[in-house]
Amino acid sequence: SNLGGLGxxxxxxxxxxxxxxxxxxxxxxxxxxxxxxxxxPTTTRWNRVSKGFGNVNLGGVQSDVENxxxxxxxxxxxxxGTPVVLPRFRLSYFDFDMQNExxxxxxxxxxxxxxxxxxxxxxxxxxxxxxxEGADPRFCATRKGIGSDNPSDPLDLTDLQRQRTIEVTYx
Length: 171
Prior knowledge:
With 171 residues, the chain is an all-beta fold.
């Protein structure tokens, strides 16, 4: 993990690489995450793959300053290191919550609608769509979270964890 060249593993490319996330025929695919804008973390020690989740720390949750980052996700042929374009795939984004006080440390996700076929939220959901009609969809947390309510298995979510998840189908 060396997103933005900030470590903690300074001897690897400036990305986070999630190994063996999919297979396409006989080809094993990795997912490479790179920043396309300035990256300001609180710490990089939490940037890692853990129990099937890719984690990225973004600073600013303890202040009223908005901190955002644009990420690029690319599927990579594990054997050759070359990019692979998938015709269609789904990706889930988990654990959108906020700090104690409303408006402080609220996690949001804006999706570039260029290659989105659809997105799904559970019903009921704790997320609110905050983007105007016709703009790229933006979803924000509405409730406080604590570490013990974080998901530990992406395939076995509680109702609360589902209510804080967005599933996106890309084409």
